[in-house]
Write a structure and sequence with these properties.
Helix content is 21%, strand content 34%. The N and C termini lie far apart (49 Å). By secondary structure, the protein is α+β, with helices and mostly antiparallel strands. Helix 2 crosses helix 7. A six-stranded mixed sheet has the order 11-12-13-10-4-14. Strands 15-18-17-16-19-20 form a six-stranded antiparallel barrel. Strands 6-7-8-5-9 form a five-stranded antiparallel sheet, with helices on one face.
């Protein structure tokens, strides 16, 4: 007998808007609404989509002894991060790595410091919530690591700033990867200017008791419409952003996955804090020597969807990789995908064209720079 799915704090609101629900990471999630995935995707590109991402794990991390130095030392030993020069109120992307350099999860962290006090807010992927918490507590025994009891919504798209600033003008002052506490309908809400769509926007942590009222006020703006998990996935893929469990996982490393930017220079060979994090030996070696395979973008002009697990073959039908996620881009009108490919096959791609194998058909694919659709962050 399977465990019942968890419901989001805003489940009733989604049902009221006739959401089609589906299971994801043990949650009953709104996948799409009556207008459909494509309409939600394009509306987010043109105006603003509101996504309920309350299934994500929100953590508040503080030092048990109250000393910021303890917080920094513990997290720098657990993650490839460096708090030196990390301004308060700024967010960074990081990785929870295993001893082999594999990606247990990818994370968003905000550093908050006020005089002699400091804390970190962290958002982890839904499917890894309990695993991440246990691993962080094991690695950081001198820290208090606790869930935040709050809803989480993402307001994304070119109209997002105006819609949120109508509730608190301070939202307009934030720039990409900055964080602040906003007052929305009288409630204190922690917001970052970030998201998972490639569009400008915000992720907003809402006190559970006030979440529905705030979301209804945002939806009263004609520019803002609900969007589901389906459109969030197609938007993130167009932006070339990897999904943990599909494009990256515990058996893939940051270097082969195009995520080496998350390893600060100070934690690399020759840096002031070189190594000292889980998987460092593998990561530093790959940074110096390269990797046997790479996660890359591919496009096809065939009007056939190319989904995850489709094999990528060379002209002699030898498998050289696999699609990790793919869709027909609603913005571009043709298939786009992320795939993990042998380095040699990529080096020869101009001379030996690649193909995706779909139902025994060879569909021509071409390596493409990422993102597929330009990002529009407000920097």
């Amino acid at each position: 007998m399977t465990d019942p799915l968890h419901r989001l704090p805003l489940h009733a609101l989604h049902a009221e808007h006739q959401a089609r629900f589906g299971a994801f990471a043990s949650y009953e999630m709104p996948i799409q609404y009556p207008s459909g995935l494509r309409a939600e995707h394009l509306h987010t590109r043109e105006q603003a989509g509101l996504f309920d991402v309350s299934h994500m794990g929100q953590l508040r991390i503080t030092p048990a002894d109250g000393r910021p130095a303890t917080l920094y030392a513990q997290l720098e030993a657990a993650l490839p991060v460096d708090f030196e020069g990390w301004a308060s109120g700024h967010q960074r992307y990081s990785l929870l790595l295993n001893e082999r350099g594999g990606i247990e999860d990818d994370l968003m962290l905000v550093h908050l410091a006020d005089g002699a006090q400091a804390e970190v807010r962290m958002v982890v992927n839904a499917g890894n919530r309990e695993h991440d918490l246990a691993l962080l507590r094991e690695r950081c025994p001198k820290l208090r690591i606790e869930w935040t009891d709050a809803a989480l919504v993402a307001l994304q798209g070119p109209a997002a700033e105006a819609a949120l600033a109508a509730l608190d003008p301070a939202a307009a002052a934030l720039r990409f990867m900055e964080a602040a506490t906003l007052r929305l309908l009288g409630a204190e809400c922690f917001a970052t200017r970030s998201g998972y769509t490639g569009e400008d926007g915000y992720e907003i942590s809402l006190p559970a008791a006030q979440a529905e009222a705030i979301v209804r006020r945002l939806l009263a703006n004609p520019a803002v419409k609900l969007a589901g998990l389906g459109a969030r996935d197609t938007l993130r893929l167009e932006a070339g952003l990897p999904l943990h469990g599909s494009d990256i996982d515990a058996a893939t490393t940051p270097v082969e996955s195009g995520l080496a930017f998350a390893i600060p220079k100070s934690r690399r060979a020759g840096g002031a804090k070189a190594g000292g994090f889980p998987g460092a030996d593998t990561i530093l070696r790959e940074l110096a020597e390269g990797t046997a395979r790479r996660l890359v973008g591919l496009v096809s002009r065939e009007q056939v969807p190319i989904r995850a697990h489709a094999l990528i073959a060379d002209p002699d039908d030898r498998p050289v990789g696999e699609v990790t996620s793919g869709t027909v881009s609603p913005t571009l009108g043709h298939p786009v995908m992320l795939a993990r490919i042998q380095r040699g096959a990529l080096d020869n791609a101009t001379r030996a064209p690649l193909a995706a194998i779909v139902r025994n058909r060879r569909l021509a694919v071409t390596p493409s720079p990422l993102p597929f659709v330009p990002k529009r962050y407000r920097r």
